[in-house]
Amino acid sequence: MTIEVLVLLAGAGLIIDTSTARVVVAYVIIVAVVALVAAPATLNAPLPLAFFLAAFLLKLVAAPIAIWEFVRRNAAARTLRPAVDLPLRLIVVLVLGGAAQLVPRVPGLGMIPHAGMAAYIVLCGLAVLVTHRNLLAQVIGLLVLSSGVTLAGVVCAPQLPEAVELGAAFDVLVVTFIGLALVRALITENPLLDTESLRRLRG
After folding, report:
1. pTM here?
2. How confident is the model at residue 188 (pLDDT cuts 50, 70, 90)?
3. Which of 5, 101, 144, 171 has the most beta carbons within 10 angstroms of its beta carbon?
């Protein structure tokens, strides 16, 4: 199985599946593939390598463990409740897969390796944000989107300073724990973890 197929299946799982644990596994697969593809660009200098390792330890280890721990402590968080029905989510996956296949045909992008995969990951992150109202799903969507942006930066601009990646990873980590804190604060009033709770808090 090629990494493109693996990412395709993991991205589909992010959008279609409703189990929080399996969605987190799909996210971990995507981040691991991005790390595998991006790693060679950081091996020639110790500072970029250090930034790279720090960033992906946060995204590949700290964030999933935090989400799994929250899910373990809160039974209501074990199932994501998408905002759209399964048939529409299937259509979204097919559209995203088709769009990713068209990216290498765009003039100027055909010679960039993994351009279609980077586009697919970014689109999957956006799709998770749009198709879910669940707060945990929103956090996972932001993490996936960050990984897609990271891969796009590596394949399109290999000399991009890794300090930018570290800053992006820190932002994602902050968003993750803020999201988990919001979920923890809202779970007693809204066991479905729906973002409608945030709208009601606005008054």
Report:
1. 0.81
2. low
3. 144
